[in-house]
Amino acid sequence: MKALLVVAHPRTDSLTARVAARLGEHLTAHGVEVDVLDLHAEGFDPRMTPEDEPDWADRDKVYSAQVRAHMDRISAADLLVVVFPVWWFAPPAVLKGWIDRVWNHGFAYGRSQPRLAGKRMWWIGLAGESAETFAEHGMAEVLDRQLRVGVSNYCGITDASVTLLHGTLAGEDHVRALLAGVTDLVDVGGRVGS
């Protein structure tokens, strides 16, 4: 099995990066080949360009070399794991831009047989707010609908889930407990827990 582990945080010492590293180690320990795609470290530009703008009349459009390289990495993976901070109750701009530019017409959607069907996808967001605050505002459902339904399912990935790790600003004891429990969230042979 091969996994693409996408990290969307500007600091390599962030809690997001630490969670991603733990997940990568866990997957590797279970025999999964892990390709780490750190969007910031690799200098991914999230801004849409004319070269990567979808052409609704041509699903076989040839996109930029950078985007094609990312498409190849997605295609090679059986499992997609995206680890990101939740800022303003949403994924960060670099991740949204990656979806806009890479998950493009003709590649991720727009074909009668979805190219990404059969893959599994785990979205893991780190949120400073509590689960109660998210529930009060209905934001967990919004993120789930946006990412699991609006991206994964729309692109043919039916085995997808969104898990939020809450209270990341609650102090070092909570962070240690959160990191200790990260590997319990995943079943390499199955799905992310909730």
UniProtKB/TrEMBL annotation:
UniProt KW keywords: Oxidoreductase
Q: GO: which molecular function terms?
A: NAD(P)H dehydrogenase (quinone) activity
Q: Which Pfam families match?
A: Flavodoxin_2
Limits of the Flavodoxin-like fold domain: 1-174
* Family matches, as InterPro entries: Flavodoxin_fold, Flavoprotein-like_sf, NAD(P)H_dehydrogenase_qn
Would you tell me the Gene Ontology cellular component terms? Answer: cytosol
| SUPFAM superfamilies, alphabetized | Flavoproteins (SSF52218)
By sequence similarity, the record places it as follows: Belongs to the NAD(P)H dehydrogenase (quinone) family.
Q: What is this protein called?
A: Putative NADPH-quinone reductase
